[in-house]
Amino acid sequence: MGVRSGMTHHRDLSPRSLERQERLVLEGLVGSVPEAERAVLGLTLADVAGGALLTLGHYPQVMDFNRTLSLGVERPATGADLDELQAAGRAHGLTRLMVGVVPGAQPGDLRGRLLERGAQPTRAWMQLWREATPWNSPAPGLDLREVGPEETGTFLDVMGRGFSMPPDLMAMGRGVLGRAGWTHYLAWDGGVPVASASLHLQGGYAWLGNATTLPDWRRRGAQLALVARRVTDAARAGAHTVFTQVAEDLPDKPNPSEHNMRRAGFQVAYRRDHLLLPTGLGA
């Protein structure tokens, strides 16, 4: 498999630690896309305002990829930092950014300062974690397998259809296939590939992502089984902690992904508040 053993067992679930781990995942993702394709997509990840800014300028409406990490975590965010953040968004042609505010972010009134700049609250994300210990969740009739070199096109097809991704965004999936630290999976119903998922492992922390199931096979346990497989593989490779991010489950906006992760034994490390901050472009 694509992950390695021999990890150091030291778990830190603080926002500072897990935001750093999330950034490592994104660095691998962004860095795996060829430079020419990154330029077309406007895909960047850079230090901005004491934190990091991820952009996907060609798709400004996709807020999952036009957002901050660690703002106010490594040091208090100043007014000049917020100016810099908005200017960076404008430079990438974005009219707004999704700004994350984690527990303990400084200054304590950071959320209020963002609101004063016209930011609007939007759906929060939950940073979830569980201990990396082997376990099993059967999915009757489905076969879970790692993606081999001959199946990379199949993996991309399932992921693309499951997420309804435009063809040019497939560069972000293509780049991490075969990349060190990444392992990818497909669930098969007989000879039909029906669900995809990925595992990223670095420094004892395992991240779960790229999880989607084709519509006709949903609610059959494929994703829960893929979670179990990845947690087990991470544990056997020496990881101590598995983590992932999901949109907050709300009464009027239920999120099946969070339900699955809860059933899989994941707990909340923290809630990341989100606000959509206007950059001033076109104002």
UniProtKB/TrEMBL annotation:
One of its GO terms (molecular function) is acyltransferase activity, transferring groups other than amino-acyl groups. It comes from Deinococcus aerius. Residues 142-283 form the N-acetyltransferase domain. InterPro entries: Acyl_CoA_acyltransferase, GNAT_dom. This is N-acetyltransferase domain-containing protein.
